[in-house]
Design brief:
Blueprint: H1 2-18, H2 22-39, E1 44-46, H3 49-52, E2 80-83, E3 92-95, E4 103-109, E5 112-115, H4 117-120, E6 128-135, E7 144-150, E8 161-165, E9 171-173, H5 175-178, E10 185-192, E11 201-207, E12 231-236, E13 239-242, E14 257-263, E15 272-277, E16 284-288, E17 294-296, H6 298-301, E18 305-306, E19 312-315, E20 324-327, H7 335-341, H8 347-358, E21 361-362, E22 366-372, E23 375-378, H9 380-383, E24 391-397, E25 406-411, H10 420-426, H11 429-437, H12 442-448, E26 455-456, E27 458-464, E28 467-470, E29 480-481, E30 483-489, E31 498-503, E32 509-513, E33 521-528, E34 540-545, E35 548-553, E36 557-558, E37 562-563, E38 568-573, E39 577-584, E40 590-597, E41 600-605, E42 624-625, E43 658-661, E44 670-673, E45 682-687, E46 690-694, E47 706-712, E48 721-726, E49 741-745, E50 751-753, E51 765-771, E52 780-785, E53 798-805, E54 808-812, E55 822-829, E56 838-846, E57 849-851, E58 863-865, E59 871-872, E60 875-879, E61 888-892, E62 905-909, E63 918-925, E64 928-931, H13 935-941, H14 952-956, H15 960-964, H16 966-969, ...
Parallel strand pairs: 18-21, 33-41
Antiparallel strand pairs: 1-32, 2-3, 3-4, 4-5, 6-7, 7-8, 8-9, 10-11, 11-12, 12-13, 14-15, 15-16, 16-17, 19-20, 20-22, 22-23, 24-25, 25-27, 26-29, 27-28, 30-31, 31-32, 33-38, 34-35, 34-39, 36-37, 39-40, 42-74, 43-44, 44-45, 45-46, 47-48, 48-49, 49-50, 51-52, 52-53, 53-54, 55-56, 56-57, 56-59, ...
Helix pairs in contact: 1-2
Length: about 1100
């Protein structure tokens, strides 16, 4: 675009010199400027193959014998390899075809290409080609081409082929000479120097030849090598030797790998490997042990993986100098297509898969933020990248040169064999039997009837803070396609990245990038490596400029079945000078360059580098000790989805309740940890650095589930007594196990059970708060009831126990706080400044309510609602955050990294009149409320709907009013979601004003908060996560606990934000002397070092 603008300016001034009608020319000049800009106002322009000469089309016709039924990868498509094969400074392009022959195009400049396939001898005729990599195998300074093969097991060139560049635009096939003539269902290859010996080693991704349906989810299958599985080959003086097993690489028959991604994931300057596996097998992350072997750490590094993982790419997305990972899957973008295309695992199957070692997998894309210490958090939903249709290639690069790396995803499946209506009605057993009886061409007829709907490729602009905007239309990528392999490179050497895409049954795409490189600049590097690694594959470059930083790595196998040019490109925004460039070469040696001008390409030589030094990466997490408190919380494995099939997540399972205090007067804190259902709670008395476990009398309540616990002096005798709150959805409304208990301290740390508390009925407690509500010097108890247990959403009430002394209590249920909602959290704060603490509550699918204290009584207190606060609240903590003398409220919510979003509405009613309530969640689309549930899920809860909906497509866009009729919605309870962020409610003269917590606090649901003051700075600890969520909605696991400081006198009030690396479902955070104790559901108690 800048080039065209300059052309217009030059045209104008040349006209002024020769034509006296200046005013007329001025008008023409303005017109020309705007015309030029109008034509090129999008980032990308799709070039015309008739103009460029890039005439390639991967046509894949099917027959009765060879088709998507007889070969499952039939529509996986081909790849793209970019590189300068003749060293003329121009990027050339190689396309692979499946049934179509491969083609090599020589770049002649100015977007003109010549097809030199026949001359080059690289067409690979009569064989199914997949991935292609341009790489200098023999170190002669010329790029060779390695082509992977799959498809039918026939043909003289069925093995993978290596075309050695002869330097005259011809190539010689020499795979056998180099030991690379691998035979199998090869998908792609990656070349890199894993042992830093100066030559390139090779990982070859082979898809299993076994049928997917032939496996059960038995344990240990990935440990059994298979001769046709993945290959890891070490380069020994130009001959590649198979060291797969001895290197610690899986090669089993359950490996359905579709993507290889290489990066230095842990910062130790050795290349690591990520493998994305399709179908049921989990993904692999191999960390290089620097001794010739790898350690596979996927399950410890990633809390969640994609289920049908396909393409992947890695780059530093937030400029923190750590490589982040994006993996594609198949989840459609629209709710309508999700309902017709996607099938989900049941809860029981999901759990069984995890138990058998297949880890937690989800049917969506995942974006893994690198947290260091070999840990990642998954942010796909937070970032808006979770659903991009049937996605193959993903590429992470700065396509608009603004200094932030964007994400491109190629989409489309030519024949959608997972369409639910197709599977149910066209491809069911009866239909197939009928076609066989009629002697029809069964498979051709089946495939003919398959849906074939092209979709847009997805381009996402990185707007910072882990948010991405969908910009396909705005950036000129609104074509409907069946796209597969893709690669980027600066094809026209104008300082921005162009994009080449291989499509199925339609012409390949070449997009010219029109970025204004005068405003958004870049810098490029051509690397000259030592020994046989002439392109210096594995080099890492870090830039420092204007207080900012950026990092890129030189690994060329990227996207899906594709490879990029080894010339490195970094977008910078409007920056003219780079202060410092740090280069780490593949052998660990270093170079530094300073004061480099932008919008230039520099050649860097490894010969100038300083000798490598050994680097030690700190992998020690913050000091957490589980041995001091040998208590592991256990919840029962109870599937609540079988009784209420429309619930998105299981309520309850809120323990362990944890309390900390000195119960025996020795000036050392002790710890009480509440047990799960059928597990005794325990008191741990501190004895020096050790603990003594005390189970009595707490074991008397082992059948209960302890959800909250607090030490307080109930009887004013100078020692700490203990209130234990019980809850859980797995009990009946009348279960005695729901009764809260008060334990009395004899002053020496020995407890006895007090008489029953005066609740009139069993209460499923959500939260408790203890304070002197009526200023009589005695501590009172506020109990927020989570729900009645008849059905989900049946609201609970506020219950108050006024302390009368001598461990006697008077019960009160404020009339206006009866059946208030599904309360999960309560705080006591003087909201209106009358010196009496008021009750503030929140919960699931409810707003934040305030119940004002009428000078010691709440019996007739009015309830006020904070506007636009209906959310999924979990926890509250009261502290004076803004230093104005009153307490504010820090409130933990669902966060922004889940399926839930603003605008969802839940309808609750017995719609089919069978005596049980149905909870139907809807999303607003075009003014109508569309149910989000899968049709089969609705059928299981409301069988009468089977009479209304014959096909999935008929149901997909139906709204709830049409589904049940307007009259049936009368009397239905409705619950809306207005706010999902975790926030601070600033107490401002009776008003609660929301201030959003930083993005890190929105990565997952928050269920535990500890806040304290350090002078005028508030220090806050957050923990959370929730795992008992239906597989289609995905568990909440994006937090490893966070510490942050807050000072509202600063321009940026939140600072010193740090991850604590505490994993799991954190339910309690409390100070313990100089340390912090974490109570974690279904896990061990952790005691961690404090943070200041």
């Amino acid at each position: 675009m800048a080039f065209l603008f300059i052309k217009c300016v030059l045209l104008f001034f040349s006209l002024v010199d020769y034509i006296p009608m200046v005013r007329l020319i001025y008008i023409i000049f303005i017109f020309l400027i705007f015309s030029c800009h109008k034509k090129e106002n999008k980032v990308f322009t799709l070039t015309d193959s008739e103009d460029t000469g890039l005439d390639f089309q991967n046509n894949v016709p099917y027959t009765e014998e060879f088709n998507t039924y007889t070969y499952r990868n039939f529509y996986n498509g081909g790849g793209v390899a970019l590189g300068d094969i003749n060293n003329d400074g121009l990027i050339d392009i190689y396309f692979t075809g499946n049934i179509a022959e491969n083609k090599l195009f020589l770049n002649k400049g100015n977007w003109k290409f010549e097809d030199i396939t026949k001359i080059a001898g690289v067409s690979c005729p009569n064989v199914w080609s997949t991935g292609a990599t341009m790489v200098d195998i023999n170190g002669d300074g010329l790029l060779d081409i390695y082509v992977c093969k799959a498809g039918k097991p026939e043909g003289s060139n069925r093995h993978n082929e290596l075309f050695i560049n002869q330097g005259d635009l011809t190539f010689k096939e020499q795979a056998a000479t180099y030991g690379l003539d691998i035979m199998g269902l090869s998908i792609h290859s990656a070349f890199f120097d894993y042992d830093r010996d100066g030559d390139l080693d090779c990982y070859i991704l082979n898809n299993s030849i076994r049928s997917v349906g032939g496996f059960d989810l038995s344990e240990g299958q990935r440990n059994i090598p298979d001769a046709e599985g993945n290959k890891f080959l070490r380069n020994d003086n130009g001959k590649f030797v198979d060291i797969t097993t001895q290197a610690g690489i899986y090669s089993s028959k359950i490996g359905y790998g579709l993507g290889i991604t290489v990066s230095d994931f842990n910062g130790d300057e050795y290349p690591d490997i990520f493998i994305s596996n399709d179908f049921f097998e989990r993904d692999y992350l191999y960390l290089n042990k620097k001794d010739g072997t790898f350690s596979e750490v996927g399950t410890s590094a990633f809390s969640t993986m994609s289920m049908g993982s396909m393409g992947a790419d890695v780059t530093d997305l937030d400029n923190d100098l750590l490589p982040d990972l994006f993996v594609t899957e198949m989840l459609p973008r629209t709710l309508e297509r999700k309902k017709t295309k996607t099938q989900y695992e049941t809860w029981d199957k999901y759990q069984a898969s995890a138990r058998k070692g297949y880890h937690h997998q989800c049917a969506r894309n995942v974006l893994q933020k690198n947290m260091g210490f070999n840990k990642f958090v998954e942010l796909g939903r937070f970032s808006g990248l979770a659903d991009t249709e049937w996605s193959w290639s993903c590429l992470s690069q700065d396509f608009d040169n603004d200094g932030l790396k964007d994400i491109f995803v190629s989409n489309g499946l030519y024949k959608d064999l997972l369409d639910k209506d197709y599977l149910n009605y066209s491809a069911n057993a009866n239909m197939i039997r009928s076609k066989i009886n009629k002697n029809e061409k069964v498979l051709i007829n089946l495939i003919d009837s398959m849906p074939s709907i092209p979709v847009k490729n997805c381009m996402f602009k990185n707007v910072g803070d882990w948010k991405f905007d969908f910009v396909s239309d705005q950036w000129g990528m609104d074509q409907l396609t069946f796209s597969n392999g893709s690669a980027y490179g600066d094809i026209d050497n104008d300082g921005d990245l162009d994009l080449v895409i291989n499509n199925v049954n339609m012409p390949a795409f070449a997009y010219r990038n029109n970025t204004d490189t005068i405003t958004n600049k870049s810098i490029g590097f051509i690397l000259k490596g030592n020994n046989k690694n002439t392109s210096a594959i594995g080099t890492k470059i870090i830039l420092k400029y204007q207080g900012r930083q950026s990092m890129v790595e030189n690994y060329t196998s990227r996207g899906f079945q594709s490879s990029i040019d080894p010339k490195m490109h970094i977008g910078l925004g409007n920056v003219s000078i780079i202060d410092t460039v740090f280069i780490t070469w593949p052998d660990g040696s270093k170079s530094i360059k300073t004061g480099l001008k932008t919008n230039k390409v520099y050649t860097l030589s490894q010969n100038e580098a300083i000798a490598p030094k050994s680097i030690i990466v700190n992998t020690t997490l913050p000091n957490c000790d589980t041995m001091l408190v040998p208590f592991e919380h256990r919840d029962i494995d109870f599937n609540l989805f079988t009784s209420e099939r429309l619930m998105t997540e299981m309520p309850g399972f809120d323990g362990p309740g944890v309390a900390v205090g000195d119960v025996n007067g020795d000036k050392i804190d002790d710890i009480f940890v509440g047990g799960g259902r059928n597990q005794s709670s325990e008191l741990y008395l501190s004895i020096g650095k050790l603990f003594k476990s005390v189970k009595q009398p707490f074991d008397q309540q082992s059948k209960s589930e302890c959800v909250k616990a607090k030490f307080f002096d109930s009887d004013n005798d100078g020692d700490l007594d203990l209130y234990v709150a019980h809850g859980g959805k797995s009990f009946s409304n009348f279960a005695v196990e729901l009764h809260d208990k008060l334990y009395l301290n004899n002053g020496k740390g020995s407890f006895s059970v007090a008489k029953d508390l005066p609740f009139p009925n069993a209460v499923n407690t959500g939260d408790i708060c203890i304070s002197d509500l009526n200023h009589d010097g005695l501590q009172d108890v506020v109990c927020a009831e989570k729900m009645k247990n008849d059905y989900y959403t049946q609201p609970g009430s506020i219950h108050i126990l006024y302390n009368l002394g001598n461990n006697q209590f008077r019960y009160e249920e404020p009339i206006h706080a009866k059946n208030l909602g599904m309360m999960s959290c309560v705080a006591l704060v003087d909201v209106n400044g009358d010196k009496y603490e008021d009750i503030v509550v929140g919960g699931k699918w409810m707003p934040v309510y305030t119940i004002l204290n009428q000078k010691g009584s709440f019996a007739n207190s009015k309830v006020t609602k904070a506007e636009k606060t209906s959310g999924l609240w979990n926890v509250m903590s009261a502290i004076d955050v803004d230093n104005d003398g009153d307490k504010d409220i820090i409130a933990g919510n669902e966060g922004l990294n889940s399926f839930f979003c603003k605008g969802l509405r839940m309808y609750v009613k017995d719609f089919d009149g069978n005596g049980s309530a149905d909870q139907i969640i809807c999303k607003s689309e075009n003014g109508k409320m569309i149910p989000i549930h899968d049709l089969d899920e609705l059928f299981s809860q409301i069988p009468s709907l089977k009479k209304k909906f014959v096909t999935y497509r008929q149901f997909a866009s139906i709204d709830i009013e049409t589904m049940f009729g307007r009259e049936s919605l009368v009397g239905a309870a409705t619950f809306d979601l207005d706010e999902l962020q975790s926030v601070i409610f600033i107490n401002d003269n009776g008003n609660l004003k929301k201030v959003s917590l930083p993005k890190e606090a929105q990565f997952s649901s928050i269920h535990a908060i500890f806040a304290r003051k350090n002078d005028n700075v508030s220090e806050m600890f957050f923990g959370g996560n929730h795992f008992k969520v239906k597989p289609q909605f995905g568990r909440q696991d994006g937090s490893m606990a966070w510490f942050m400081k807050c000072d509202f006198s600063r321009k940026n009030p939140f600072f010193d934000i740090k991850p604590l690396y505490v994993e799991g479902q954190i339910r309690s955070i409390l100070p313990f002397g100089e340390k912090i104790v974490f109570g974690i559901n279904n896990a061990k108690v952790l005691i961690c070092n404090n943070l200041n």
